[in-house]
């Protein structure tokens, strides 16, 4: 077998949350290009339709589900629909999360804290429980990839919204815990920990707060921010047989931001 064959995903099925834009879109496209069919979830119909069309253009099957995965009921329904309509899922990427609201701790209500912490953690738990649980029951192994962040352990200066660091720290430890539990079932569970990538949201942030974004840029040894398409190959590696002996790992992709 060629080393390149170990990265092929022909006949596999991916389920990815927040898969229509930014990093999620690029991971979905990379894994589809390697041969997998895809279940996409997203809140925005227009971007969902566009990414679904781009995946179909690669010759893959797509099930596009419009859902707010921060809503536990909607998240559960999306997982159940994927299993019922698309068959067994081989790869899960829990991508939903974000800072959303940069409210300082002293000004944040408990209700907002719970809501935003749930946004960063709940869908990862639900999708892992339902789709990963189906992998356990099937006994054929699988791949789970959680999108954490370098903010799981590194505090970005001058930012509000510490629910984000807290939530991503929880995602990182959840990843390690489930990896230990499910290794015996041939299911690998790993996390991707991005630094700052120039997604659409961060491009808007750069325009609204250029001084702050330039301050972060100065801290990156490589001297630039990440390009969204650069995360796709890492996701493909973790989804493939090339990573069959990798589990419980945190893969940092940040241009060196975490080094200083």
Describe this structure in words.
This protein is an alpha/beta fold and 260 residues long. The chain has one domain (3-198, 228-253): Rossmann fold, CATH 3.40.50. 43% of the residues lie in helices and 14% in strands. It has helices at 22-33, 45-56, 72-86, 110-138, 163-182, 200-208, 210-217, 232-239, and strands at residues 13-16, 37-42, 62-66, 91-94, 142-147, 187-194, 250-253. A seven-stranded parallel sheet has the order 3-2-1-4-5-6-7, with helices on both faces. α3 packs parallel to α4 (110-138), α4 runs parallel beside α5 and α6 (200-208) crosses α7. The N and C termini lie far apart (41 Å). The model has no long low-confidence stretch (mean pLDDT 95).
């Amino acid at each position: 077998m060629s080393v390149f064959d170990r990265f092929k995903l022909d006949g596999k099925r991916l389920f990815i949350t927040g898969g229509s834009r930014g990093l999620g879109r690029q991971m979905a496209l990379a894994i589809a290009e390697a041969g997998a069919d895809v279940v996409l979830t997203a809140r925005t119909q227009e971007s969902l339709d566009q990414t679904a069309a781009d995946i179909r253009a690669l010759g893959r099957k797509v099930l596009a589900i419009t859902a707010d995965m921060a809503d536990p009921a909607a998240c559960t329904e999306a997982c159940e629909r994927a299993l019922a309509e698309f068959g067994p899922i081989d790869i899960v990427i829990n991508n939903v999360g974000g800072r959303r609201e940069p409210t300082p701790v002293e000004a944040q209500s408990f209700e907002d804290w719970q809501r935003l912490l749930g946004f960063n953690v709940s869908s990862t738990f639900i999708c892992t429980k339902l789709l990963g649980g189906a992998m356990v029951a099937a006994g054929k192994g699988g791949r789970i990839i959680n999108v954490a962040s370098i903010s799981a352990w590194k505090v970005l200066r001058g930012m509000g919204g510490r629910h984000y660091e807290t939530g991503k720290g929880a995602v990182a430890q959840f990843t390690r815990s489930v990896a230990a539990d499910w290794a015996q079932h041939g299911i690998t569970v790993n996390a991707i920990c991005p630094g700052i990538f120039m997604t659409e949201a961060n491009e808007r942030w750069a325009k609204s707060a250029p001084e702050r974004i330039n301050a972060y840029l100065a801290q990156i040894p490589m001297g630039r921010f990440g390009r969204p398409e650069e995360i796709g190959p890492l996701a493909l590696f973790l989804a493939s047989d090339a990573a069959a002996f990798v589990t419980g790992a945190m893969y940092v992709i940040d241009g060196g931001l975490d080094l200083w």
